[in-house]
Specification:
This protein has three helices and six strands. The chain has helices at 2-29, 73-76, 96-109; strands spanning 33-38, 43-48, 53-57, 80-82, 85-87, 93-95. The strands form two sheets. It has a three-stranded antiparallel sheet with strand order 1-2-3. The protein has a three-stranded antiparallel sheet with strand order 4-5-6. It is globular.
């Protein structure tokens, strides 16, 4: 019984270490938006915690009703970094994954 409980304790300790390592990796993988500066024509200049920077074009997302309010230019300029993305006062948001993907893919087209 002592050997079994020791083995279980060892496995439990390893699982905790593995879980902590996964959390550290996940925190590192998810980019944080550190700067979001609205521009004309519904563009946002973005800088991430990993150093990725570029212009995020919001216009392709206007088709859905959730982002309809963003078409008001004065409201659009109220964007700010939040959590792992950007957000507006009425909680429309984009996650950093979407923003980074769009920036990287628009740079490939340029």
């Amino acid at each position: 019984m002592g050997t079994l409980s020791g083995l279980l304790l060892k496995k439990s300790s390893s699982a905790v270490k593995l879980c902590k390592e996964h959390k550290r990796i996940i925190r590192k993988v998810i980019d944080t938006i550190i700067s979001a500066i609205p521009q004309d024509n519904f563009l946002i200049e973005i800088v991430t915690s990993s150093g990725i920077s570029g212009t995020f074009d919001v216009k392709p997302y206007f088709g859905g009703s959730a982002f309809e309010e963003l078409q008001d230019e004065s409201y659009f300029h109220l964007v700010r970094p939040a959590h792992h993305g950007i957000i507006w006062p009425n909680e429309q948001d984009f996650c950093s994954d979407t923003i980074v993907w769009d920036i990287q893919n628009s740079n490939k087209d340029a």
